């Protein structure tokens, strides 16, 4: 197959349509942003149902993060995620994440790996705190 911009591909799979995990998610939101490994405790609250649980983040980027969940969260579901660092409790980030996908529990742990994007996107001081948090954590991981 030849794409309009000149790129050739020989894979039939790349030309096939894919099953959309959520009617509102069209795949363009999956960016190739650098991810920062981020292992910090967070509080997750489901918007519909009000269930809340303590969790652990896996990594983060400018547009969202991945975290663990004791239950499967369906794509399109919205959760409120709040995190703070033990080393600097004054730095707290709180925002709404829209779940875009989840992976099955591995190793029989019973915890689902969930990926979400900030919806609405973080802006202003919340975005500054989130990026500052990621940058501080990135420096810690490098050492």
From TrEMBL:
Residues 29-108 form the PilZ domain. Pfam families: PilZ (PF07238). It comes from the Bacteria. Signal peptide: none annotated. GO terms for molecular function: cyclic-di-GMP binding. Residues 1-32 are annotated as: Disordered. This is PilZ domain-containing protein. It comes from Candidatus Hydrogenisulfobacillus filiaventi.
């Amino acid at each position: 197959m030849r794409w309009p911009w000149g790129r050739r591909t020989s894979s039939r799979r790349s030309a096939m349509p894919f099953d959309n995990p959520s009617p509102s998610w069209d795949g363009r939101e999956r960016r190739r942003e650098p991810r920062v490994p981020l292992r910090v405790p967070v509080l997750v609250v489901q918007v519909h149902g009000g269930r809340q649980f303590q969790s652990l983040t896996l990594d983060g980027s400018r547009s969202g993060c991945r975290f663990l969940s004791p239950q499967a969260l369906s794509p399109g579901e919205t959760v409120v995620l709040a995190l703070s660092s033990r080393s600097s409790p004054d730095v707290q980030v709180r925002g709404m994440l829209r779940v875009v996908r989840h992976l099955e529990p591995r190793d029989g742990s019973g915890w689902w790996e969930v990926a979400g994007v900030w919806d609405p996107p973080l802006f202003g001081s919340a975005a500054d705190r989130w990026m500052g948090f990621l940058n501080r954590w990135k420096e810690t991981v490098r050492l």
